[in-house]
Amino acid sequence: MNVDKLLKVQCKSDRLWISDRDGEFIQTDLQGNKLKKIKTRGEDEGYHTVTQDGDLIFTDKNRKAIYKKVQDNKITEFFNTGDWEPYKNINGDICTSDFNKEAVVVVNKSGQHRFSYIGQGSVFCPYGICTDVLGHILVCDEISNSVHLLDQNGQFLSFVFTEKQLVKYPRSLCVDNEKNIYVGQRYSNTLTVYKYLQ
Predict the structure, then answer these.
(1) Which of 30, 52, 147, 148 is most exposed, with the fewest beta carbons within 10 Å of its own?
(2) Mean of per-residue pLDDT scores for the chain
(3) pTM of this prediction exceeds 0.85
(4) 96 with 83: CB under 8 angstroms?
């Protein structure tokens, strides 16, 4: 798959939503065929997720708002917020990647802090974050060029891959139901697919 200036990728069943640094969201099938393209006002953002119904939810940092695009391509303001990148886990927790605090922060559905994860030793620069159907939390670390695999309680399980797999600056990721992980790399227009949890 070839997307210029890729920022974030999100998988929902047999579709991918990919964002780029120019404020565009591209929907593709798993073979990389472009299905839809949406141009937004936001640049250098790309924070988005996809609902169970397939609706795209994305942020606009300048307007501090979250928007929702439903299946009929209508875009509406969902609500106003500050700067954050949320991801919801199977148990209802909200998982966030906080680059400035160098931590993954998880709160329950009532907003109460459950735990923070600060990496494995050296400097931790979390960026892209996602969860899988088993409740695992996966997070990109741009400094160590790796993806950390955590359980739903924030315990480190393993590195999904490291710099040895020739991934540089992992910035975004998502997983599908076939245990594939899709990784977008900063400064690259390549989306790499790996098998994990074999």
Answers:
(1) 52
(2) 80
(3) no
(4) no
